Amino acid sequence: MTNRFKRSHKFTLQLLLATVLVSAQIFIWVEETNAQRGGQSGPPEHANVEPVNHLPNPYQTQRDWGILPDGRNWGSVSAVNIDVDGVHVWAADRCGTNSCAESDVAPIVKLDPDGNVVQAIGAELFMWPHGIDVDRSGNVWIADAATVAAVGPSPTQSGRGHTVIKLSQEGEVLLTIGTPGESGDPPNHLTQPNDVLIAPNGDIFVAEGHGAQFLDEPGPEALSRISKFAPDGTFLGSWGSWGYTDGQFRAPHSLAMDTQGRLFVADRGNRRIQIFDQEGAHLDTWYQFSRISGLFIDDNDTLYAIDSESDENYNPGGWRKGLRIGSAQTGEVHYFIREHVSDRPSGMGGYGSMGEGVTADANGNIIAGEVGPIQGLTKFVPRLLP
C-alpha cells in the first residue's frame, strides 16, 4: 500500500468519523429540543397533585378490535364515539396512515358490537379527522384539525381541513362550519378544531387549537379557544386564550358534557380538566385525571379520561399513560388501566402506548382509538365491576 493511498484512506476514515459525530450531535440536539418543546412549563397547581397510577383495573383488554372492509389496515384513530343506540361504535380512521389528504377512502366507519363495519362514509371530505360526536338524532359530527405539523400550512393543498362537518348516517353533508382548507376565526373560519360536542339543545361547541400545547410562551400557534354555535351553525361566541390560569388553555383537546349540562374540557397542554357552564363561566379545575387526550362521560356520569402522552417531560412527577375512570360528579378516580407494552412509546416518550380517543357503550365496554405505534381500536371489557 502506497503512502499516498494510506494518507487518503486515513483522511476518508477521519472524514467519515467526523460526519458520524456531527450527525449524532445534531440528532441529540433535535431530540433534546423536541423533548423540551412546551413540556416542562405548566400550571403551578399541578406540582401539588400526587400521581394517580395505582388503582384497580377491573377490565380485560382486547387489542385489534374491529375489522375494516376490503382488507384495509387501520391508521391513526383519535375520533371514536358511541352511536345513539348505545351499542354501535363510530370511528374516524386516518385512511390507513395519519392523514387523508390524498385519499379517496371513506374514513368514518360504524361498527357493530362484534367489530364488523356496517357503514362507511365521508370519502374525500377530510384531511385529519381528529374529534367526533354523535348527536341525539344520530347525526355524525367530525372535527377536522388539519394541523401544520400533520399536513402543512393553511390553506391546505387539498382544500380539506379546519372544519367541523355534520353528516347523516348515510354520509350526506348536512352542515359545514368553517371554510375547508383555510384557518382563521369564526364565524366563517376555524383553526385546528380538535373536537366537537353537541349539547342536548343542539348547540355546538368546538375546541380549537392543537399546536398550542407545545409552546412555553405565546407564538404563531398559541390560539386556544372554545367556540359556540347555534344548531343551524350561527356563531354565538368564543372564550379562552393561551395560558396557564383557569379559563385559559394550552390546546383544548377533547370535550364532554355531564348530566348537569356542564362542559368538560381536556386542557391537554396544562395536564388538567377544566369545567365550564355553557356560557363559558369557569366552574372548576381537576388535575387528578392526568394529561388527557380524550374524554367521554356516559349517562351515569362515569368519566373516562385517556392519557396517550404522559412522560417526565410532558407530565412530570411520575404520571403514567393510561385510562382513568371515575366520577364526573365528585371528581374521584376509581380505576386505572395502564399503558400497553409497545416497541416504542406513544406521544413523545415515556413507557408504552395508550389510545387518544375514548368512548363507552351502554354495557360499560370501553373502546379506545389508538394513535402512534399501536393503531386501530382497543376494547376494554368489564370483568370484575360490581
Can you describe what's shown?
The protein is mainly beta and 386 residues long. The chain has one domain: Neuraminidase. It is 10% helix and 32% strand. It contains two helices and 24 strands. Strands 1-24-23-22 form a four-stranded antiparallel beta sheet, with no helix packed on it. The longest helix has 34 residues. It is globular. The N terminus is likely disordered.
Short characterization:
Helices cover 10% and strands 32% of the residues. The chain has helices at 3-36, 148-151; strands spanning 59-62, 79-82, 89-92, 108-111, 117-121, 129-134, 140-144, 163-167, 173-177, 193-198, 204-208, 225-229, 235-239, 252-257, 263-267, 272-276, 282-286, 294-297, 302-307, 322-327, 333-338, 357-360, 366-370, 376-382. Residues 1-36 have low confidence and may be disordered.
Give short descriptive properties of this protein.
386 residues, single chain, four-stranded antiparallel beta sheet, disordered N terminus, 2 helices, Neuraminidase, mainly beta
The number of distinct helices, counting runs of at least 4 residues, comes to: 2
Largest sheet data: 4 strands, antiparallel
Unreliable stretches covering 5 or more consecutive residues: 1-36
- The number of strands is 24
CATH topology: Neuraminidase
Any idea how many domains? 1
CATH uppermost class: Mainly Beta
Mean pLDDT: 89
Query: In percent, how helical is the residue content?
Result: under 10%
* CATH H-level superfamily: TolB, C-terminal domain
Global geometry: globular
Task: Tell me the structural class.
Answer: mainly beta
Distance between the termini: 81 Å
- The strand order across the widest sheet is 1-24-23-22
Write the H/E string, N to C: HEEEEEEEHEEEEEEEEEEEEEEEEE
CATH architecture: 6 Propeller
Strand content: 25-35%
Compute the CA-based radius of gyration.
Answer: 22 Å
